[in-house]
Amino acid sequence: QAIKLIMDNDVARAKTLQVDLGDRSYPITIGQDLLTNQTFLQNRIKAQRIVIVTNTVVAPLYLESIASTLSSIGKQVETIVLPDGEEYKNWESLMTVFDALLSKKCDRKTMLLALGGGVIGDMTGFAASAYMRGIPFVQVPTTLLAQVDSSVGGKTGINHPMGKNMIGAFYQPQAVIADMNSLHSLPARELSAGLAEVIKHGAIIDAEFFTWIETNIEKLRAKDNESLSYAVLKSCEIKANVVRQDEREGGLRAILNFGHTFGHAIESGLGYGKWLHGEAVGCGMVLAADLSYRLGYIDYVSKARITRLVDAAGLPTVAPDLGEQTWLELMEVDKKNEDGKIKFILLKPLGKSIITEVPKELLLATLRSSTL
Ligand code: NAD
Ligand code: MG
């Protein structure tokens, strides 16, 4: 058993998953009031000097509380506040981080702490992987998407003008700290986007979890702490388990791209930023379920359950009409494909997934029936 669930004694109601990757193993803790808990932070963060990397939206919300707690337990704390947005997940921001670290004379023992969503997490992780050939870092994800997806798995990086996430490294954090309280300020649309990846984790691997999400979707959207904790815990467990078996995406890890082939086509067809990634993935899962149904892999009830759940999560279920030719072109350029053939992650049945090529006629039928 490589993913162990440990109860924390020092933090009421917090749960810790230990991700076992040999000497790069690390704990993921999910709980409440973690950012202001001295005992917990003392136990979890070993470095003496910490540089917090965050952005202009998250800083006014959570920077003061975590920074003052770290100071109160004797840490030397400094901060770097970057501009907010995917468009700043770039080389200039990375250089801003390196410039700050060098001018502060940070050495190899300095730890970076990523306080924010996936953009901050990806950039900070990449900066940590490269600064002085690698310094420790801790993830404090503050969006649901970052808690259930981007903070787990070790992928870090930035965008290049010619492609998203094209420059990066595999680099594991020393710890992930997911505080459910930080989700209270998250806009509903961002919460729904994170729920897409939660639903994905159930659909591809865990039918029982999928059913649990169906039962609790209203509570999740209402930000009920206990429901959110469970969803984050299960998602991290599922993703960490897949990643542990395939850390560098040789095979199995591809199932985490369920809904993403269609989703990426929607994102790039409409122009990045029009739909959130999670919205495109939600809709992409509806299309992938339709395709699975046409191939006889899932029954009609399963297909309907997926559409209903995506809808209940506040996500779109009908795709924009990009035009057949554009759809095909966008899916063929998806970087996960080999030899120009389009591979899809499909459900067979709900709760299990396979990777397969599909007949073009069925794909076209799905596109025709699922788009506006
Ligand atoms: P994000 O980091 O842009 O956050 C979304 C918005 O919410 C931003 O405006 C952010 O400042 C704001 N925000 C963050 N926390 C908040 C809070 N608690 N309250 C209010 N507002 C808050 O986007 P995201 O969805 O978290 O992450 C998307 C990024 O993650 C993309 O760049 C994507 O490529 C990356 N990603 C990486 C992986 C991976 O494996 N490394 C996986 C999935 C996604
Ligand atoms: Mg995704």
From TrEMBL:
GO terms for cellular component: cytoplasm
Cofactor(s) named in the record: Co(2+); Zn(2+); NAD(+); Mg(2+)
Domain 3-dehydroquinate synthase C-terminal: 194-337
Cofactor binding note from Swiss-Prot or TrEMBL: Binds 1 divalent metal cation per subunit. Can use either Co(2+) or Zn(2+).
Chain ranges of the 3-dehydroquinate synthase N-terminal domain: 80-192
Protein keywords: Amino-acid biosynthesis, Aromatic amino acid biosynthesis, ATP-binding, Cobalt, Cytoplasm, Kinase, Lyase, Magnesium, Metal-binding, Multifunctional enzyme, NAD, Nucleotide-binding, Transferase, Zinc
Catalytic reaction annotation: shikimate + ATP = 3-phosphoshikimate + ADP + H(+); 7-phospho-2-dehydro-3-deoxy-D-arabino-heptonate = 3-dehydroquinate + phosphate
Entry coiled-coil feature ranges: none
A Gene Ontology BP annotation from the UniProt entry: aromatic amino acid family biosynthetic process
Pathway this chain belongs to: Metabolic intermediate biosynthesis; chorismate biosynthesis; chorismate from D-erythrose 4-phosphate and phosphoenolpyruvate: step 5/7; Metabolic intermediate biosynthesis; chorismate biosynthesis; chorismate from D-erythrose 4-phosphate and phosphoenolpyruvate: step 2/7
Binding residue positions for Zn(2+): E197, H260, H277
Binding residues for NAD(+): 84-89, 118-122, 142-143, 155, 164
E.C. numbers: 2.7.1.71, 4.2.3.4
Principal location class: cytoplasm
Subcellular location: Cytoplasm
Molecular function in Gene Ontology: 3-dehydroquinate synthase activity; ATP binding; magnesium ion binding; shikimate kinase activity
Subunit and interaction comment: Monomer.
Task of the protein: Catalyzes the specific phosphorylation of the 3-hydroxyl group of shikimic acid using ATP as a cosubstrate.
Family classification: Belongs to the shikimate kinase family.
Protein name: Multifunctional fusion protein
Stretch of the intact protein here: 186 to 557 of 557
